[in-house]
Design brief:
Elements lengths: L8 H29 L17 E7 L3 H12 L6 E7 L6 H5 L1
């Protein structure tokens, strides 16, 4: 006795309809999300344009004098057109405050 003799025609039809509905839904999602993934705003500037957003780098420093001496010059040498570095001194007891002034 085979396994197919125990399955009714109604079950096979319902399984086929479920498979077809799933396939249609997957194709629909693929089309919609492909449009979203590759959408380009016609009014947007090209990637290499000068309309890049500003970037703020905020650092919290508490007794970080030696780390700031080493890393702050490298951070300030960025070639990004519009960026700022904000260092927040949090009650340092070393020379951090004098370095930042």
């Amino acid at each position: 006795m085979s396994i197919f003799s125990e399955i009714s025609i109604t079950s096979l039809v319902l399984l086929g309809l479920l498979g077809l509905a799933t396939l249609i839904q997957l194709i629909y999602y693929w089309v919609i999300f492909a449009r979203l993934a590759f959408y380009r705003d016609p009014g947007a500037a090209p990637a290499g344009g000068n309309n890049l957003p500003g970037v703020s780098v905020v650092m919290s420093a508490r007794n970080e004098y030696h780390h700031l001496i080493k890393n702050l010059p490298e951070l300030l040498q960025q070639d990004y057109p519009d960026f700022e570095v904000v260092v927040v001194n949090h009650t340092s007891s070393d020379e951090t405050a004098s370095l930042l002034k």
